[in-house]
């Protein structure tokens, strides 16, 4: 199977320092800082990057499961809201809340919710987040 790579460089102290993350063979480069992570500063942060991975993984897993069940989604729009909180003098990622809107011709809400819950539990990023609360709000258009 494939091995993927991302790189981060941090320079300086935690509050005054700054860093840059890079992945996608250079397709994505962005700055990050204490301010972008814990305040409202510009740039990205590890939680947003984790959220992007979780949303992307969930959407693909749901598409796969729906396809295997004979449904062809017009679209699956997924967002992951990742929460970080102080804990024991440090920080811990407490949860990832998936918000999904999808248009899937020919499926009823109950079946859609069954597949959405299965994708939430089964996507590889959800599995990697074992020990973190993962919740889902899904809407069928």
**What CATH first level of the largest domain would be assigned?**
Alpha Beta
Q: Ends: how far apart?
A: 35 Å
CATH superfamily of the largest domain: K homology (KH) domain
Strand content: 35-45%
Number of strands: 6
Give the H and E element order: EEEHHEEHHE
Largest sheet: 3 strands, antiparallel
Q: Total number of helical segments?
A: 4
- The tally of structural domains comes to 2
Judging from the principal axes of the Cα atoms, what is the shape?
elongated
Give me the Rg, rounded.
Answer: 17 Å
User: Helix- and strand-based class?
Assistant: alpha+beta
Q: Any guess at the CATH architecture of the largest domain?
A: 2-Layer Sandwich
Mean pLDDT: 96
CATH topology term of the largest domain? GMP Synthetase, Chain A, domain 3
Q: Strand order across the biggest sheet?
A: 1-2-3
Low-confidence stretches: none
- Helix fraction, binned, reads 25-40%
